[in-house]
Design a protein that fits this description.
With about 300 residues, the protein is α/β, with parallel strands linked by helices. It folds into two domains: about 140 residues, Rossmann fold; about 100 residues, no CATH class. The protein is about 40% helix and about 15% strand. The chain has eleven helices and 13 strands. A seven-stranded parallel sheet has the order 3-2-1-4-5-6-11, sandwiched between helices. The protein has a two-stranded parallel ribbon with strand order 7-10. Helix 4 links the parallel strand 5 and strand 6. Helix 5 crosses helix 7. The protein is globular and about 60 Å long. Bound molecules: NADP nicotinamide-adenine-dinucleotide phosphate. NADP nicotinamide-adenine-dinucleotide phosphate binds next to helix 1, helix 3 and strand 5.
């Protein structure tokens, strides 16, 4: 099958593209040419920008399925949630239709909702609406937070754990639960969504087998990143209300190229990010892997190499 993937150079794309190639599909990886991510060296990139629409129709030509992965989690200048995640998705849908694609698979996020208090989730919800109304076969996969080599969220938590500090600040009261899912399992769900004709018109929610708090995530990460001091006493964790952390997050966002957290991400940390524990088994027929035993990629390699990767 001929498949075009937008955002193929990003975290999810860098895992999905090799999986689709290995399954024998013909791939068109669409990107702005800013980076190649972890893509195989011999794979050509087709230019396409979802904000301007430039190159998209040409990049999609001949593709039966378009898998749309582009989104921003941090707003920078004109790269706003509305412009990339919402309007960019509408632009992709239009270009896919004009290019003659049959199906569009859209990776969305658990909690996608029109509530403007959570602008990232509202933009994902708006993107979903464009996909459903776009006149193509569609499949929407709403994922919980994803872990695996190259991820953003877990590497940021690992970075926070490794900071030289007497305590770990846990944003919020600790009641919000997350249901992390491994990248390999997300890829299985996306491949099935792209290739199974029976799945048209479905919105799937996916998450891993565990529902855990942020503090539990910190503990699991500490256990693989040699931050044993953290595990010694529960008093090492200090829960701080989100409102008190917001000024610091705003400052980090304004001043740092790679802040630990932005204000918008901070709000998401206080919001549950879960679905049913058996969501993947019921929708896709396999059991996703747990966190335990699968966070080894976060283990520090070398202080200089790790600092460069995080810069
Ligand atoms: N990661 C998670 O935990 C998670 C959880 C739930 C849902 N999701 C969803 O999964 C999808 C993929 O996330 P990810 O973690 O892989 O993100 P990512 O690593 O940040 O990758 C984003 C991709 O979008 C591309 N991109 C950005 N702006 C673009 C533009 N204007 N035109 C064309 N391409 C553009 C980037 O390419 P260049 O910058 O190289 O051009 C990159 O390939 C997103 O829709 C996200 O909402 C992710």
């Amino acid at each position: 099958m001929r498949v075009a993937v937008t955002g193929g150079t990003g975290f999810v794309g860098s895992h999905l593209v090799p999986a689709l190639l290995a399954a024998g599909h013909e791939l068109r990886v669409v990107g702005r040419g800013v980076r190649r991510g972890a893509l195989p060296d011999d794979l050509a990139l087709s230019f396409g920008d979802v904000q301007t629409g430039e190159g998209l129709e040409e990049a999609f030509s001949g593709a039966e399925v378009v898998v749309h992965l582009v989104a921003v989690i941090r707003e920078r200048g004109r790269r706003t949630y509305a412009a990339v995640n919402a309007d960019g998705t509408e632009t992709v849908v239009r270009a896919a239709r004009a290019a003659g694609a049959r199906r569009l698979v859209h990776l969305s996020a658990l909690g996608a909702d029109p509530d403007p208090a959570f602008p990232y989730l509202a933009s994902k919800w708006q993107g979903e609406a464009f996909v459903r109304g776009g006149g193509l076969e569609w499949v929407i996969v709403r994922s919980s937070v994803i872990f695996g080599p190259g991820d953003g969220f877990f590497r940021q938590l690992a970075r926070a754990v490794r900071l030289p500090q007497p305590v770990i600040v846990v944003p919020g009261d600790g009641t919000a639960l997350f249901q992390p899912i491994a990248i390999a399992d997300v890829v299985r769900c996306l491949v099935a969504s792209a290739t199974d004709p029976e799945r048209s018109g479905q919105t799937y929610e996916i998450g891993g087998p565990e529902q855990v708090s942020l503090e539990t995530l910190f503990r699991l990460i500490a256990s693989v990143t040699e931050a044993d001091w953290l595990l010694a006493s529960p008093k090492r964790f200090v829960h701080v209300p989100l409102e008190l952390l917001r000024p610091l997050a705003l400052l980090m966002d304004a001043l740092m190229p790679n802040p630990l957290v932005t204000a918008s991400q901070l709000d998401l940390l206080g919001r549950p990010n879960i679905t049913t524990r058996d969501a993947v088994v019921r929708a896709f027929g396999f059991s996703p892997v747990p966190l335990a035993g699968n966070l080894e990629y976060l283990r520090p390699r070398h202080p200089i190499l790790d600092a460069l990767a995080e810069a």
